[in-house]
Design a protein that fits this description.
heterodimer, A: alpha/beta, Aspartate Aminotransferase, domain 1, Aspartate Aminotransferase, domain 2, 2 domains, seven-stranded mixed beta sheet, 39% helix, B: alpha+beta, Sufe protein. Chain: A, Arc Repressor Mutant, subunit A, GMP Synthetase, Chain A, domain 3, three-stranded antiparallel beta sheet, 17% strand
Chain lengths: 402, 305
Amino acid sequence: MSDIYMDNNATTMVDPAVVEEMMPFFSEQFGNPSSLHSFGNKVGMALKKARKQVQRLIGAEFDSEIIFTSCGSESDSTAILSALRAQPERREIITTVVEHPAVLNLCEYLETEGYTVHYLKVDNKGRLDLDEYKKLLSDKVAVVSIMWANNESGTIFPVEEMAELAHNKGIMFHTDAVQAVGKIPIDLENSYIHMLSMSGHKLHAPKGVGVLYLKRGTRFRPLLRGGHQERGRRAGTENVASIVGLGKACEMAGSHIEFENTHVKAMRDRLQEGILAAVPNCFATGDVENRLPNTASIAFEFIEGEAILLLMNKVGIAASSGSACTSGSLEPSHVMMAMGIPYTAAHGTVRFSLSRYNTMEEVERVIAEVPGIVAKLRKLSPYWGENGPIENPESAFAPVYA
Amino acid sequence: MWDYSEKVKEHFFDPKNAGAVADANAVGDVGSINCGDALRLTLKVNPETEIIEDAGFQTFGCGSAIASSSALTEIIKGKTLDEALLVTNQDIADYLDGLPPEKMHCSVMGREALQAAVADYRGEEWKDDHEEGALICKCFAIDEIMVEETIRANNLHTVEEVTNYTKAGGGCSSCHEAIEGVLTRVLAEKGESFMAPAIGGAPVAAPVVAAKPKPAAKASGNLKRIRIIEMVLESIRPNLQADNGDVELVDVDGKNIYVHLTGACNGCQMAAMTLGGIQQRLIEELGEFVKVLPDTEMPVAMEGA
């Protein structure tokens, strides 16, 4: 039996059709797209095609609104730093407590540079309070940066509405959409989103390529200056093979959007329902009514995520966890903590993220394996008795913490 | 994924002594705030001999926490309480053929559970005596609280000093930004500000610079200085000799003190750290800033210089 990959929010398999499209650009199509001769010209045409393919997937009005970058993190940094440099008189940023580290760590750094960052909180389902948001919109704010969908819980934020609110107050709006693009329909032409980040490897393109969408007319200051690549907005010779791959992947994602929201969603729903029915003391986290079609985040109480992952890995199932121990950080997932999930459950969250390459048979195999793994670890847990959690677990086992 | 040893995997996938000992007479409950892991250790101690006849663990935690718990129970079974108390967290890590630096606190938790259980048996109250913070230096597994407390206790001002006192930052140097951050914060508490050196990095083999004219030697006090320097070096030599190395004084040129490292110290990757340690001792003993350099960096006297 082959291994089961359910960690597609971390990264995805490069589609074989994407690989095939890329191959010539490692060998005969080696030209520099900036060159005038025919070697370069063909490569330049390939970039143009890829740009169109990306444009179509995210519904951009012009293909010149697509700037190829090296990754989602570069796009995020470029967008936020550009907004600050273009508007030096504005010293505030609005974001959320559940952003990806690509945004959060940058914002924390910017605080040391004297910027004020407002972090919007979330409720126990991971939802934002739009009234809190509206109150923060002022002419001191340089940029709002809100993720489209959360990587851990899959919860979708109302970024289109939030962008319009920002735009009406004259504030730039950026969204980190690396998890959303390719999974849910996006129509940027008819939105007030000024900047959007996406990443190739989240949608079956290779790692090392990303996109910053920049709405025409939005004031911009490049992160990398130098050559005239990307119309002078991102210098550096293009990562041609990967860009071509990204274009193909976008085309394929576009034609699978419906599949994603029917078949993949059905597999995800079956997985969650099957696990919740078979395992006591576990629950789905996030806004389950309003989340990515491929993501299920399940918190298993009284056990720890890394231990779960290691046992799942042993039987050939790949997923990820919000446990502190999987990252080497001090706290369990900041996303789970922000939703007020208790320690003993936040440590035991497992994220299953599917793709169009998963099958219903795989889903059933996971449902069959997980209960035994959870039971084995609970047997070791000081919070767990013979047949269930000990009474008043938090007070019956209250260790001295160091 | 973590780079766990086969031994860690073995104790995780097939833990020994899992579950509570039925007729236990000693219980230790501890947790590590570092990652939220927690451990209950139960022991059956023979009241006559104080020998640990049985040990069991229940652990809420990651793979290495479970493996460390399992290893701990295997190590202490059959030992007397006093013998068991000599087990260090390093012993637990060694038993498992090592743990990743981020996971060393799992072995610390094991040792603490043992201390807590022994205290419980003896009717004493056990208090934890250390705190853990976020890991700063991955090369030497030094956490933020350790760095912070060392800065406070020794009035440190530079990354170099932090490295000399704690080893943090002495390896790959990637954590220097984080160390600067802690310095900035701690110094700000005292109303001081952190002054960074202009660049920080320097080539390993410092370029040979033309010798500058030596400052006129000050007769007064210089002899006393050299005696102190020699005294400090003498006190350090036994440690180095234990590692088959040695150090000797070559020259004193104003603030620069040149020494010759020999034996195992010569060319050792830790040489820079050894020099740093010597420098720190000398600064303390002399009460002035000096720089300790290997004799290979002595300025070459140029013709006519």
